[in-house]
Every structure is written in structure tokens, then in C-alpha cells.
């Protein structure tokens, strides 16, 4: 067994891999939350439910429609994004001028309804979704065995997060998007359909959660409460990175996953609370978050 300074390298790198996988999902989910809050100032407490909906949609598509994993990666985010569009149009827009607390309570209630519906229909024991055959193998590295599907998750998450950041921060489309949400009256004067921009932005943020759900289905059991278990952690990560900071959500999601993995190896008892401990420390030292801007 390979050791270095008394550290079991197989165990350490194994936990780092788990941490990177969790961090990949944290990054995708927190990125969606950061987009929705940072650009639209909407607190979407249904993001975890959309993650769960993505996993269930992939399972239903495979078992009832014959849609495989690769097609689900495209189809399911579009379907979940459409659910987000309908949410924004018929649930959130009517209370857009009210306090942010109203949207939080409304999306939280919607999430509970969705979770209850799937629990009633499919129970809470969990459903299995097989890993696609093309990614069923693995690679033997010096200190660990790296399953191909785990490597795919990390790479795909980094690429999606990077492209999303680039689109929002570096392209003309992103400039229109930021301008439309920061100064809607001016953009409407130039003939830009701001309500449509808001709706599509919300749908895109929700679609990222659906994509994360599809990617998570072959690793975790598909259960109605899989999203609620992650939601509080993801909100903590968004707070650490800075509410509304796109780059902060990505970097903090990946970083907190690694920290959580290291904690599971060195001090497992604290692994469930280390992210919240980091959040408390960051809020005491920098209330706007690591990458957030002071109000």
C-alpha cells in the first residue's frame, strides 16, 4: 500500500476524486443559482428540485421512451429549462415587484410540491440508472483507479461552467443580458425585449440544474429528495463565493468539493459541516463573499 509521511495515498486520492465529483455538481448548481440571483435578483429555492427533475427525466426517458444517456444530456436540460420558463412566466413574474422573500417562499413551496408528487408516484427507495457503456471502464493511475465516467463528469462540468462564464462575461450576448437586467428601461428604449431576456435567463439557470441531474443519475440513486439534500449546501457555496458572482460560484463550488473530500479523509466527523464552517468564517471576514462586491 503506497504511503507518504504516514498518509495512505490511495485513500487520499480517492477522497479527492469524490470531492472533485461533488464539486462538479456544486459548481453547476451554484452557477445556475448565481445567474438567477445575480442577474435577475430572484432567489430560486426550487433549484434542487430542478436537479431532481433532471435525474428523473433522464430515467423516465430511458425506460419509457428509449432515449439514451447521450441524447438525454441534450433533451432533458431543454425540458427542465422549459419548466423554468413556465415558472418564471406564470409564478414569479406576477410577484416580480414584491420583496425577494415572496419569490423565495413561492419557489420553496413549488419545490416541496414537486418532491411530494415524485415521492407519491415513485416512492423514496431510489431508482437506478446505468452508466453509458462508452464510459463504463476506467484508467489505472499510480495512486488510484479513475473510472471513466467520474473523469467525464469533472471534465464536462468544467467545460460547461467555463463556456457559461465566457458567454456571460465576454460576449455581446452577455453584455445585452447584463444591461437588460441592470437597466431594463434603457434597453427597452432600444427595442430590446427585456421580459423575454429575463425569462430565458431564468430558464437557462434552471437548465443547468437539469443537466447536473442527468449527469448525477448514473452515480447516485434517483430519489425525490436528492435535490433537497444538496440545496442548502449549494446556497452556502453561493454565499461563500459571493451572491451573484458567476466566476465565484464556479471556483467556490469546485474548491468546496475538494475541501470536503480532504476533510472526509483527515477528519470525517466534520465533513458534513466543513462547508458551513467556511461560510461562517468568510462572512465574518468578508460579508460580500470571496468574489462578491460590497453593496
From TrEMBL:
Membrane topology classification: Multi-pass membrane protein
CDD domains: TM_PBP1_LivH_like
Domain of life: Bacteria
Primary location group: membrane
Annotated InterPro entries: ABC_transp_permease, BCAA_transport_permease
Sorted UniProt keywords: Amino-acid transport, Cell membrane, Membrane, Transmembrane, Transmembrane helix, Transport
Subcellular location: Cell inner membrane
Annotated TM spans: 12-35, 67-87, 99-118, 149-168, 189-220, 232-254, 266-285
Family to which this protein belongs: Belongs to the binding-protein-dependent transport system permease family. LivHM subfamily.
PANTHER family cross-referenced by the UniProt entry: ABC TRANSPORTER ATP-BINDING PROTEIN, BRANCHED-CHAIN AMINO ACID TRANSPORT SYSTEM PERMEASE PROTEIN LIVH
Name the UniProt record assigns to this protein: Branched-chain amino acid ABC transporter permease
Biological source species: Marinobacterium alkalitolerans
Amino acid at each position: 500500500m503506497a504511503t507518504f509521511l504516514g498518509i495512505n495515498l490511495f485513500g487520499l486520492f480517492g477522497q479527492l476524486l469524490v470531492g472533485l465529483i461533488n464539486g462538479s455538481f456544486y459548481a453547476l448548481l451554484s452557477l445556475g443559482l448565481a445567474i438567477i440571483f445575480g442577474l435577475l435578483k430572484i432567489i430560486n429555492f426550487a433549484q434542487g428540485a430542478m436537479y431532481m427533475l433532471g435525474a428523473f427525466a433522464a430515467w423516465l426517458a430511458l425506460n419509457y421512451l428509449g432515449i439514451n444517456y447521450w441524447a438525454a444530456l441534450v433533451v432533458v436540460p431543454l425540458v427542465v429549462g422549459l419548466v423554468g420558463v413556465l415558472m418564471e412566466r406564470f409564478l414569479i413574474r406576477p410577484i416580480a415587484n414584491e420583496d425577494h422573500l415572496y419569490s423565495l417562499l413561492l419557489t420553496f413551496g413549488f419545490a416541496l410540491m414537486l418532491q411530494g408528487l415524485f415521492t407519491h408516484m415513485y416512492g423514496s427507495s431510489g431508482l437506478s440508472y446505468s452508466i453509458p457503456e462508452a464510459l463504463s471502464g476506467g484508467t489505472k493511475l499510480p495512486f488510484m483507479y479513475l473510472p471513466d465516467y467520474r473523469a467525464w463528469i469533472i471534465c464536462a462540468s468544467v467545460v460547461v461552467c467555463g463556456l457559461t462564464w465566457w458567454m456571460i462575461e465576454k460576449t455581446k450576448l452577455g453584455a445585452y443580458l447584463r444591461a437588460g437586467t441592470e437597466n431594463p428601461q434603457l434597453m427597452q428604449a432600444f427595442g430590446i425585449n427585456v421580459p423575454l431576456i429575463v425569462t430565458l435567463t431564468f430558464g437557462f439557470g434552471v437548465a443547468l440544474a437539469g443537466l447536473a441531474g442527468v449527469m448525477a443519475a448514473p452515480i447516485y440513486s434517483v430519489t425525490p429528495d436528492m435535490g433537497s439534500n444538496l440545496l442548502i449546501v449549494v446556497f452556502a457555496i453561493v454565499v461563500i463565493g459571493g451572491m451573484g458572482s458567476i466566476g465565484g460560484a464556479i471556483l467556490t463550488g469546485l474548491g468546496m468539493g475538494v475541501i470536503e473530500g480532504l476533510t472526509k479523509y483527515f477528519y470525517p466527523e466534520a465533513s458534513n459541516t466543513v462547508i458551513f464552517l467556511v461560510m461562517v468564517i468568510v462572512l465574518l471576514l468578508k460579508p460580500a463573499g470571496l468574489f462578491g462586491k460590497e453593496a
